[in-house]
Write a structure and sequence with these properties.
The protein is mainly alpha-helical. It is built from 20 helices and 7 strands. The chain has a 3-stranded antiparallel β-sheet with strand order 4-3-5, with no helix packed on it. Strands 1-2 form a two-stranded antiparallel sheet. Strand 6 and strand 7 form a beta hairpin.
């Protein structure tokens, strides 16, 4: 509609000019180079219009003729680039699909057709990686460092190559260069934190955590937890190297940030003990025991209390467990030390309360040791050891990322490199694919005293003093090869050829 209005406006202007000229007739005389031309005003205007139109057409024709070679070259280049970008796209698809031969072929074709080394270097490097040609891939990534637009991608590629080669120092240098270009990139800060931790530069890891929080990649609580964990590891390393001042500062901040982490309280107590500040060491562990009782806190506490004899160890530990009475860890620790002090009645009471209705494997083994040491009852000890085979495992430090079990808390899993992934919990239950009864993932058994069972099937473990005939009889009473007895507290007698009964 708008175009129609514009056309009619132009037509009206032309008509108005024609009418204006018709109403004002006149003669025009031109004398030039001895020639004279006499005509009317209308014919003069018409001749001028024709001359202008012919001039424009001639000019356009000349322009098209002079531009033809350049336009042809541009068309050829456009077609070449189109084919090059098509090869580049197909090469990227081949890389994503894991087809190394196709990726290499398309990379060579794109490199030939495109005058864009940044893109072709990236594809060529990825194709070389798929073919296992790490040196070629590294050369392509280094070539990308010369272009400011591709320098960041080149650094990332070199960082991954260094990671695969296990060169942590070189990988860390590439990450730091990448941070100078894009300091807010999540993978840069995460890699900087992990690699700094692995190379022992805890301060750089702490700085990376602060940057992640500032850029909104970590919330306040998560950042606080990570700082506390890193400071705990810093205090442990400084203490091991004899730098007590650094260990003291780091451990003090760690217990403030993660008061529920036993490792933080343990290293803080150890540092204060080395300063001969026994009262502070005791107070730190007592505060931690209120929040999370843990076996790792028992020995540091007893050292801080100067408990040397079994009786004093049991008596002093009672002061700690009073901070969280009735907790299974409190009862278990008291039961173990009561056995050391040969306080059999107290040991039995504590272990019974610690085990409850379903005692764990460790409690069963402690009860077996108690039966043998207190009463010399080999049969009762054997029954507890048999029960330990099917009992739930004791809590342990378990990596929540890969499921690995560690003997002590670690800041980083040695199996999967996950950061702060260890939790104190009971291993998960698993079931045999053939429908056998559910069992537990467990640590290697901790044997107590002389009641150490022989290695063998999980349900056929026995004390060395038990005759083989009795064990075979026991194995025949259940499909899985062992009987699951109830508590042997009553010390029921077992005879060959008779069914086993429990009091």
């Amino acid at each position: 509609m708008i175009r129609g209005l514009i056309f009619f406006v132009k037509l009206a202007v032309v008509v108005a000019v024609a009418v204006w000229l018709a109403e004002r007739p006149g003669d025009v005389m031109i004398t030039w180079l001895g020639y004279r031309v006499d005509t009317s005003m209308g014919m003069m205007v018409l001749a001028a219009l024709i001359l202008g139109t012919v001039s424009v057409l001639l000019w356009r024709l000349w322009r098209n003729l002079t531009r033809a070679p350049r336009e042809v070259g541009r068309a050829v280049r456009g077609r070449r680039e189109s084919r090059g970008y098509q090869a580049l796209t197909q090469g990227m698809v081949s890389v994503a699909a894991g087809e190394p031969d196709e990726a290499r072929r398309y990379a060579q074709r794109a490199n030939k057709l495109l005058d864009n080394p940044a893109l072709t270097h990236l594809l060529s490097a990825q194709a070389a990686q798929l073919n296992g040609e790490d040196s070629d891939a590294r050369e392509h990534y280094r070539a990308m460092l010369d272009d400011p637009e591709t320098r960041f991608l080149g650094l990332r590629g070199l960082f991954r190559q260094a990671q695969m080669d296990g060169d942590l120092t070189e990988a860390l240098s590439y990450v730091r260069q990448a941070r100078d270009i894009r300091p807010e990139t999540p993978w840069v800060l995460q890699a900087l934190c992990e690699l700094s931790l692995k190379t022992g530069d805890i301060d750089s890891a702490l700085e990376a955590v602060t940057d992640m929080q500032r850029h909104g990649q970590l919330n306040k609580d998560v950042a606080k937890r990570r700082r506390g964990v890193l400071l705990t590891e810093k205090a442990r390393r400084a203490n091991a190297q004899g730098d007590l001042n650094a260990a003291n500062d780091a451990s003090k901040r760690a217990v403030e940030l993660v008061p529920d982490l036993p490792a933080a309280a343990a290293i803080r107590a150890e540092v204060r003990r080395r300063y001969n500040d026994w009262r502070k060491a005791v107070r730190v562990i007592e505060t931690a025991w209120e929040k999370m009782p843990h076996p790792d806190l028992v020995e540091p506490y007893l050292r801080a209390r100067h408990a040397d004899t079994p009786a004093s160890r049991y008596r002093n530990l009672s002061k700690l467990t009073d901070r969280n009475p009735g907790h299974p860890e409190s009862e278990r620790a008291l039961g173990r030390l009561a056995m050391e002090a040969e306080s059999w009645r107290e040991a039995r009471e504590h272990l019974t309360r610690a085990g409850g209705d379903n005692p764990s494997e460790g409690i069963c083994r402690l009860m077996a040791e108690l039966e043998e040491r207190e009463n010399g009852d080999q049969e009762a000890a054997r029954q507890w050891l048999i029960r330990a085979a099917d009992a739930p495992p004791d809590p342990a430090w378990i990596c929540e990322s890969c499921g690995a079990i560690a003997a002590s808390w670690q800041v980083q899993c040695s199996n999967c490199d996950a950061f702060d992934s260890f939790a104190w919990r009971t291993p998960s239950r698993v079931r045999d694919e053939l429908g056998q009864p559910a069992t537990y993932a467990r640590l290697e058994p901790q044997v107590a005293g002389s009641a150490q069972p022989d290695s063998g099937a999980s349900s056929g473990r026995r004390a060395p003093s038990v005759p083989d005939a009795e064990v075979e009889e026991t194995a025949q009473s259940r499909p899985d090869g062992a009987e699951a007895p109830s508590s042997p507290a009553g010390g029921g007698e077992t005879r060959k050829g008779e069914p086993r009964t429990q009091a």
